[in-house]
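The pair is quoted verbatim as follows:
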Amino acid sequence: MLIKTRKSSDVQSSEITLKSVFLERRKFMKTAAVAGASIAVPGLLTPQSVFAAKPDPKRVKLPGVIKGPFSTKEAPNSYDDITSYNNFYEFGTGKRDPKRRAKKFKTQPWTVKIEGDVGKPGAIGFEDLIKPHKLEERVYRFRCVEAWSMVVPWVGIPLADVLKRFEPTGNAKFVAFETLHDPKQMPGQKRNSLDWPYVEGLRMDEAMHPLTLLAVGLYGEVMPNQNGAPIRLIVPWKYGFKSIKSIVKIKLQEKMPPTSWNQQAPREYGFYSNVNPEVNHPRWSQSKERRLGKFLKQKTPMLNGYADEVASLYAGMDMKKNF
């Protein structure tokens, strides 16, 4: 499918290097020299050695990261902001729970199965994702359904590039995703807050859109456990719960797949869950949001600021009915 995208007024792929990112990297490079002493280039790890880094694999620089397209010019939140305030119910319902409880979460070895309506079903791992293609850093707005937001420099590759390797068939109309189910490692799964494992889904054209990422890191480094390590989805024009974490299975199929929050509360969470300030959550307004680290609220942009790129996907659709 040929997807024609338009360039938003605030999206310039040539203006992505931000002062805060530059300073963060300089700070990290000072501490990475010791970890990279046994590697050809200090601080730069090969795909095979990423998870072997000591003593803190969560702050390991990813190899070959380039500046990707579609980045916002907004300054990203700090590394501490992004990694300390998270929704990850597998590790607890509190925003601080994931960082505290996911420290010993094992992300290696890791395999994602690709199945369903594909010509070449198979599997893909972390190393498989970062070897064939250059990783891209994209600074995306990230909007939570609870009306808070942040700006995150994600690192990953377009989901479309991955799915094409497995040759989707003409019957593939939707893409279903599934998170790891392991209550021993994920204590939140011992509670019935959701029907585990966590599942999500996209329409095929949404999954193949160039904005949709399979992310493996942030701030140029390996994804922290609490942010969905080792592989998660990023769909920047949708509410954050659509960006499923710690993925172990991707299935292409003809029928619309079930999604966890829609099953839990269908009146509050629709399948599409596009950021729309004109459609309120039944219990609060979505017209404004509070950016993490700021006191005053700001207006919520349509489709989280990505309307120029993705509005055509929903042409003729009632976005209030199909929320």
User: Anything to note?
Assistant: Residues 214 and 278 are 29 Å apart (CA to CA). The radius of gyration is 19 Å.
